[in-house]
Specification:
The protein has about 260 residues and is an alpha/beta fold. It is built from ten helices and eleven strands. The strands form two sheets. Strands 7-8-9-3-10-11 form a six-stranded mixed β-sheet, with helices on both faces. α8 links the parallel β8 and β9. The longest helix has 18 residues. The radius of gyration is 18 Å and the shape is globular. The mean pLDDT is about 85.
Length: about 260
């Protein structure tokens, strides 16, 4: 399998009054046309990895890697102008909470149209038509209403679908989803995952999903990378998570509440 994303020796440190604080320390992995999960407890560094790939960390963060490429593009060596073409156009990112990720003073439709125009170079009328088609593709029953709505007028599940539509509008080759279902109830969660699965298969994309939900990973993903304290401590098929050998992975399973 060809690896679109290749990362070797990724390190991220933040400035502090006591000196550098290491958040990610020597992470190695690849993502091809597959569904890969990055799992771990809060503070393990998994979201930092996702943002480091797109260089979306604050100025206090220092990113270094032996290798960080996507489809032959050196993500660390890119200037900001080229990196802007990679963000969205080649690699899309779904953030955790649509209420914070979507612009509150712009309608949903205008934000999706903006994505089409920025990355596709198409006119407003055609962009509007494609935006409505994309809203329908993420199983929104009334695309016209959602197109004209503001983010605060949508439910959590509807907002998440709208954000997925906006990210997919640019036609990325890799999708990074940072806790895409954590703010949703169980029934909506399964619906959103089904949409992601359907679209990943239809568009031939790679998917890197960042989550702490091991049950989700075991049923939805192909591979799992388990992070602890900024390092990947175990890599295994997602279906084999329940039989993991590393004590930390087994502790994560043991920590899950039961009825």
């Amino acid at each position: 399998m060809t690896a679109g994303l290749e990362i070797a020796g990724l390190r991220v440190a933040y400035d502090s009054i006591r000196g550098p604080v290491v958040a990610v320390d020597g992470v190695d992995f690849t993502v091809g046309h597959e569904r890969v999960a990055l799992v771990g407890e809060s503070g393990s560094g998994k979201s930092t990895v996702g943002r480091a790939i797109l260089r979306l960390l604050p100025p206090s963060a220092h990113i270094a890697a032996d290798r960080m490429t996507f489809d032959g593009i050196d993500l660390l060596g890119c200037d900001e102008r080229r990196m802007r073409r990679v963000r969205g156009g080649r690699i899309g990112m779904i953030l955790q909470d649509p209420r914070h990720a979507l612009n509150p003073v712009m309608t949903v439709g205008r934000q999706i149209v903006e994505s089409y125009r920025a990355h596709g170079g198409i006119g407003g009328t055609e962009a509007r038509r494609r935006a409505l088609d994309m809203l329908a593709a993420v199983h929104i029953r009334d695309p016209e209403r959602v197109f004209a709505a503001y983010p605060h007028q949508l439910s959590g599940g509807m907002g998440q679908r709208a954000m997925i539509a906006m990210v997919l509008a640019a036609g990325p080759d890799l999708l990074i989803a940072d806790e895409p279902t954590s703010a949703l109830d169980v029934t909506v969660r399964h619906s959103v995952l089904a949409i992601l699965d359907e679209l990943v298969i239809a568009h031939g994309m790679g998917l890197l999903i960042i989550t702490h939900d091991l049950n989700l990973v075991a049923t939805f993903c192909d591979r799992a990378l388990v992070m602890r304290a900024g390092r990947i401590v175990e890599a295994l098929p997602a279906s084999g998570l329940a039989e993991a050998h590393h004590p930390y992975t087994r502790a994560l399973f043991a920590a899950a509440p039961t009825l």
